[in-house]
C-alpha cells in the first residue's frame, strides 16, 4: 500500500530564503505524486504533479519538485520565499490505476520577515 | 474559486444526531471525492464516486454513507454523531479518475459536534 511521509510538521524560513519541504513516498508500483497547498480557511489547491514525464516538475507560484526514484523522494522547493507562501503544504501519492490519493500529514510553512 | 461548491459552510449539532453535507462538482466533472480533515488524523480519504457509482473507499466509518445523484452532485451522510466526528469535510471533483487527473477541492464544511 502506498504511503507518504512529510518530514517536519512545521518549517520556518526567512523571506527571500530557499524553501525546502521534504516528502518521501512508499509505493509498490510507479506512483503519481502531488503537492497541494492549503491557505487558511480554504480548500486544497494543486501546486504541481508528477506523472512520469520529466522528473523535475514545475508548478504554480514558483514552486518545483524533483522526483528521485532512488531516494523515493519528491521534495518541494522554491528559490525565494514570499510572505504569501505561508500555508500548509501536503504531499500526496496515488498508485497508477488506483483511484484514490493518499495525503501526508502536512507541513506548515512559516515565513519570517 | 475551484468551481466546487459545498453546503453548508458550518454545521453545529449534538452527539447522536444525523447530518447531510452537500457537494456540487465542477461543471463536467464525473468524479467526486470526500475527505475528512482533523487535527489528529490529518487529511483522510473517505470515499469516491464516479458517474453515480461508488468507485473507491478509504477510512470511512459504517455510520457514514454517501451517494452521487444523476445530476452528479453528492451528499455525505453522517449519523449517530460523536464528538470525534468534529472536523472539516472536503469534497473534491475531477473529470475522470485519480492518477493523472487533478482534483479540485471545495471550501469545506466545518462540522462541530457538541
Description:
The complex is a heterodimer of chains A (113) and B (114). Chain A is mostly beta strands and 113 residues long. Chain A contains no helices and 11 strands. The radius of gyration of chain A is 13 Å and the shape is globular. Helix content of chain B is 0%, strand content 53%. In chain B, strands 2, 4, 5, 6, 9, 10 and 11 form a 7-stranded mixed beta sheet that branches. In chain B, 39% of the residues are buried.
What's the gyration radius of chain A in Å? 13 Å
Structural class of chain B: mainly beta
Largest interface: A-B, 23 and 27 residues
What is the average per-residue confidence, as pLDDT of chain B, rounded to a whole number? 92
Give the helix/strand layout.
The complex is a heterodimer of chains A (113) and B (114).
Chain A: E1 3-7, E2 10-14, E3 19-26, E4 31-38, E5 44-50, E6 56-58, E7 64-68, E8 73-78, E9 87-95, E10 102-103, E11 107-112
Parallel strand pairs in A: 2-11
Antiparallel strand pairs in A: 1-3, 3-8, 4-5, 4-9, 6-7, 7-8, 9-10, 9-11
Chain B: E1 5-7, E2 10-13, E3 19-24, E4 31-38, E5 42-50, E6 53-57, E7 64-68, E8 74-78, E9 87-94, E10 104-105, E11 109-113
Parallel strand pairs in B: 2-11
Antiparallel strand pairs in B: 1-3, 3-8, 4-5, 4-9, 5-6, 7-8, 9-10, 9-11
Amino acid at each position: 500500500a502506498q504511503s507518504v511521509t512529510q518530514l517536519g510538521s512545521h518549517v520556518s524560513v526567512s523571506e527571500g530564503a530557499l524553501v525546502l519541504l521534504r516528502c518521501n513516498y512508499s509505493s509498490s508500483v510507479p506512483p503519481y505524486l502531488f503537492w497541494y497547498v492549503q491557505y487558511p480557511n480554504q480548500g486544497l489547491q494543486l501546486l504541481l504533479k508528477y506523472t512520469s514525464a520529466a522528473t523535475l516538475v514545475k508548478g504554480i507560484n514558483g514552486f518545483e519538485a524533483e522526483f528521485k526514484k532512488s531516494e523515493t523522494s519528491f521534495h518541494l522547493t522554491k528559490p525565494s520565499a514570499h510572505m504569501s507562501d505561508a500555508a500548509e503544504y501536503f504531499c500526496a501519492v496515488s498508485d497508477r490505476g488506483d483511484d484514490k490519493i493518499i495525503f501526508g500529514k502536512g507541513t506548515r510553512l512559516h515565513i519570517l520577515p | 474559486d475551484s468551481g466546487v461548491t459545498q453546503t453548508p459552510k458550518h454545521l453545529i449539532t449534538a452527539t447522536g444526531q444525523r447530518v447531510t453535507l452537500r457537494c456540487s462538482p465542477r461543471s463536467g466533472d464525473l468524479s467526486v471525492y470526500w475527505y475528512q480533515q482533523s487535527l489528529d488524523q490529518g487529511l483522510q480519504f473517505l470515499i469516491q464516486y464516479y458517474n453515480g457509482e461508488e468507485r473507491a473507499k478509504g477510512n470511512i466509518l459504517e455510520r457514514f454513507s454517501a451517494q452521487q445523484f444523476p445530476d452528479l452532485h453528492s451528499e455525505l451522510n453522517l449519523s449517530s454523531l460523536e464528538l470525534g466526528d468534529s472536523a472539516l469535510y472536503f469534497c473534491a471533483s475531477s473529470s475522470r479518475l485519480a492518477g493523472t487527473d487533478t482534483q479540485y477541492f471545495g471550501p469545506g464544511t466545518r462540522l462541530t459536534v457538541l
